[in-house]
Amino acid sequence: MANKNDNVCGFLAEIKADSPQGTVGRLKLSKLCPTQNAVGMDEVNAKVAGMKDRSGDQLANYLLPRAVPVIIGNGGQYYLIDHHHLTISLWRAKGDVDVPVVVTRNWSRIEGNRFWREMAANNWVYPFDAMGAGPFNPGTLKKHVKDLDNDLYRSLSWVVRERFGYVKDPSNAIFAEFKWGSFFRTRVIFDEQLTCKKEDSMQMTLADIEREDLGNYNDQIAYALYLASSPEAAGLPGFVGRSR
């Protein structure tokens, strides 16, 4: 899928298996190994729409402040520990282009179970599926960002954050939205989830629900915003509560 955006980060050196911690460079999207299995496709679709018109310097200026943090491990593989939504969106909008990355750790000599124990100890892996089930063996993680599944409740947590139901907490940013998604999963049920076919449930987005039943959609979003400000959510990252 080569295109004119392939060299958008060509001024950066390519990251290698021996690149030291702190190195900023570039990697092809196809070389990045996910550390989670799902994303919120509503957020992805919004990002894709915003990226399609960017190219050249404009695209580079957008990507550089969003360098993807990677862990080099398991014999020289590259694991992204954040920006999964950015990378799958970029793949869908531009193909297998270079993306700026920063080496968070070089653990290339650490392999297998020891590697994954270190990843888990640092909260750099989220071994759950798109329905919130898990944890599973890290061997079940997706191998490519293009294969990430859709998690409706990850989308819901994004919508709630966009409406200031909570804030992005810099001290607890990685996987924070999944924690909110898990909180909402057992509390917010959309009518469409109860009536759709099983094979369609994994593909369902909030945009689909909004189109099919605007009234129920608005009611459930309002309920999610209420829950986000309630004492039940007080322990979640970025909790802001109710204003007095």
Automatic annotation (TrEMBL):
Ranges in a coiled coil: none
UniProt cross-references to InterPro entries, sorted A to Z: ParB/Sulfiredoxin_sf (IPR036086), ParBc_2 (IPR014956)
Domain of life, per lineage: Bacteria
Protein name (database record): ParB/Srx family N-terminal domain-containing protein
Species of the source: Candidatus Dechloromonas phosphorivorans
